[in-house]
Amino acid sequence: MTQELLILLPICFITGAINAAIGGGGLIGIPAFYNVLTTFSPAQIMGVDKLSSVMGHGMSIRQYARNMNLPWRLMLPTAVTAFAGAYIGVRMLNLMPTEWMRPIIIAVLAIMLVYTWFKPQMGHVDASRTPTRSDLAKGAALGLALGFYDGFIGPGTGSFLLFLFVRFFHFDFLRATACAKVVNFGTNAATLVFLIPAGMVDYSLALPLGVAAICGSVVGSRLAMRGGNQWIRRLFLILAVSLLCKLVWETVRPWLG
């Protein structure tokens, strides 16, 4: 596995930085895992990816929490329901095809992009408040739905979290990015609850790749805090466009023969 590690360590450093700064590192990491770990099953690849991601997200949460006040009263229940949703999603992987959800995700992502593009001031100023019972209920519902999506399909969870935190809780992009890491930690941990007992995690790969993700997350979180809201907004739009193109291509490719 030495050769595979030499290839994947810098990739996990980069994906860790991207995940910490904006989310969506899986758009780079997952294809790299499939190209390099050709003898691994999809479940084993997910095991390596999720354990290294959990380690990276844990460090990015620490970095953000040291430098800003996070709304833990809202985020912890949201992370708990996200954990539950992700566990349900990963258990349903073999029960129904994921393809039927892709057109819905494409439509939602396109609407999200257009909305953000035509509201340039959205997420520029943090207008968050002490969470109400209604906010807690919204957070729990969003956590459950996006946790299920992360466990069942996966790519783009960070983008959806970022948008919804800005839209529904009036966070600025920086605070929304930090809070998304808390929820992402919960969803990734939930998939590991299923994958670890099934023996699907190769620790000789996942742990060193997790260390690379930790190092990347330190860099990514610092860049995000230094770059501010406008910088994160631009990265968010780039990432969302990339994800939309990926999903559209995966949808039309079978029709092209």
From TrEMBL:
Segments crossing the lipid bilayer: 70-88, 100-118, 139-169, 189-219, 231-249
Membrane topology: Multi-pass membrane protein
Domain of life, per lineage: Bacteria
Record has Cell membrane as a keyword: yes
Keyword Cell membrane carried by entry: yes
Predominant subcellular localization, coarse grouping: membrane
Pfam families xref list: TauE (PF01925)
InterPro entries: TM_pro_TauE-like, TSUP
Cell compartment(s), UniProt: Cell membrane
Keywords tagged on the record: Cell membrane, Membrane, Transmembrane, Transmembrane helix, Transport
Family: Belongs to the 4-toluene sulfonate uptake permease (TSUP) (TC 2.A.102) family.
Protein name from the UniProt record: Probable membrane transporter protein
